[in-house]
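Structure first, sequence second, as always.
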């Protein structure tokens, strides 16, 4: 289900849907001219980066266990830079790149919202503005801590298994919300998102991706709070019997998808001839009472994470 965008933030119906389902689709949140600008910037970044000095880091979610998640220094030091990560299937068994670099990159991250003027401008050009959405969701000091372009390349765009964003961007207590903007149509054919509605209420953040281990990151048991504050959350909220079915979220270019940090969601591999470029950033609560853990793979840049509410 999707709703018409509201310039001043979320309407009561939109907020209720998000609270009940853990996601929300807002059509036409970006104008066609903004979409064109962001796609142009994406293609410029892809064509201009120097592959001769690149470590050819492949992006991996690590599968169900997270054990093989990318964790080298190129990744761990990308929080205040623009860096490029390749699709796993872009390489031959001997390590040779099988595609032109523009068709081999999985992700560009993680500081686009500061270092790229077109992506930075989205904070004011999106309707509703991210700051107004954050206010609607109850954030007191919303901070943008990472941003990414995900390309989901034709034929080799990798599948992303069911996961929760707060596993990777943990605050105590959990507070992450994803803002996911389609820059091209995302369909079942080219690997759109799918959601398990309502799972944010009962799916605890049991594990966390932290710095450490042989690969630079490791998945560990979460010994902190596993849900945001509030009586609507808890493992006792899990429905009896079947957990439900994943619901596909097909969207058009310019649409915004909001994703609760505890929500289980996934995407399938893109075997089609059409790519699926999107832009996403994540927001956490920076107010007193929420702590950002020093073990998280992503650490704040000098000056701290970007404040949305000014």
């Amino acid at each position: 289900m999707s709703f018409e965008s509201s310039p001043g933030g979320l309407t009561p119906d939109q907020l209720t849907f998000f609270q009940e389902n853990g996601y929300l689709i807002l059509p036409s949140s970006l104008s066609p001219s903004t979409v064109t600008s962001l796609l142009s910037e994406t293609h410029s970044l892809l064509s201009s980066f120097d592959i001769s000095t690149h470590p050819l880091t492949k992006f991996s979610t690590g599968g169900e266990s997270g054990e093989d998640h990318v964790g080298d220094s190129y990744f761990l030091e990308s929080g205040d830079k623009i860096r490029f990560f390749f699709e796993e299937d872009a390489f031959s068994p001997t390590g040779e790149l099988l595609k032109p670099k523009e068709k081999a990159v999985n992700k560009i991250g993680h500081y686009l919202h500061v270092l790229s003027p077109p992506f930075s401008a989205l904070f004011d050009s999106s309707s509703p503005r991210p700051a107004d959405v954050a206010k609607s969701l109850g954030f007191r000091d919303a901070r943008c801590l990472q941003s990414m372009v995900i390309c989901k390349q034709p034929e080799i765009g990798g599948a992303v298994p069911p996961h929760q964003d707060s596993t990777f961007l943990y605050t105590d207590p959990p507070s992450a919300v994803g803002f996911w903007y389609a820059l091209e149509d995302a369909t079942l054919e080219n690997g759109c998102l799918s959601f398990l509605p309502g799972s944010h209420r009962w799916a605890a953040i049991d594990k966390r991706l932290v710095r450490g281990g042989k690969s630079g990151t490791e998945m560990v048991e979460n010994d902190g709070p596993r849900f945001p504050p509030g009586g609507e959350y808890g493992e006792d909220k899990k429905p009896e019997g079947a957990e439900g079915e994943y619901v596909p979220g097909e969207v058009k270019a310019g649409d915004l998808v909001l994703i609760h940090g505890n929500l289980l969601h996934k995407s399938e591999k893109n075997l089609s001839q059409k790519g699926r470029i999107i832009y996403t950033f994540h927001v956490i609560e920076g107010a007193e009472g929420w702590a950002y853990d020093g073990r998280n793979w992503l650490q704040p840049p000098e000056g701290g994470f970007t404040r949305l509410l000014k």
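Margin note: DSSP finds seven helices and 16 strands in the chain.
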